[in-house]
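I am writing to request your help with a piece of structural work I have in hand. Thank you for your consideration; the sequence and its tokens are set out here:
=====
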Amino acid sequence: MNQIATPKGHPKGLYVLFATEMWERFNYYGMRAILIYFMTDALLFNYPFASNLYGGYTGLVYLTPLVGGFIADRYWGNRNSIILGGLVMALAEFILFGCASIYNSSPQIASVLFYTGLGTMIVGNGFFKPNISSMVGQLYPDQDKRLDAAYTVFYMGINVGGMLGPFICGLVGNTGNPADFKWAFLAAGVGMLLSVITFRALKDKYIVSHTGAPVGEVPAHMKESKHFLKNPVSIR
């Protein structure tokens, strides 16, 4: 009995997702690496409060993907959710950059910007994180033997970003001078924009299934409803 041969190598879409996730993790872990230091050294929060706030923030970061994944599956699709989530996360970093730029001269405004930035980051992560992981499996046919290796490659991107983010953001931001924390947030924001640009520029060409069909588009029932609204069928 003839068996269908499994192609060698991986689709190029895997490496697009690798780079997209790498820069997003650069952003997330880079910002997290200096967050406690920023709260205690610049905003002058006491350590117990800063620690509890940090824990609440990371907890919500892992909770909101439940909502983001549901909305993507039902309404927006993976692609739109990733782009939206990435842009919202980049905005969050730039809000935190503004906070770190004026914390000394306008502490009340800086406090508002800080909580706004954290909240925005939580929302953006909820849309980004669950959707990019699910797209890896959609690049391959069912029961493809390469899938385990594909997720290994993908998680290497997470590890690379998780290593570079704290190193770069800590190097430019945690210098001993609280005024330099803003550069860490700026670097993280630039990394997030690189993630979105990479995905947006290459998704149509490379993020496709083994049959060549686009992966992660708007769900079929939403497309049908839009088509109905544009071309309503008269009832007789």
Notes: The chain has one domain: 12-230. Residues 231-236 have pLDDT under 50 and may be disordered. The chain is about 75% helix and 0% strand.
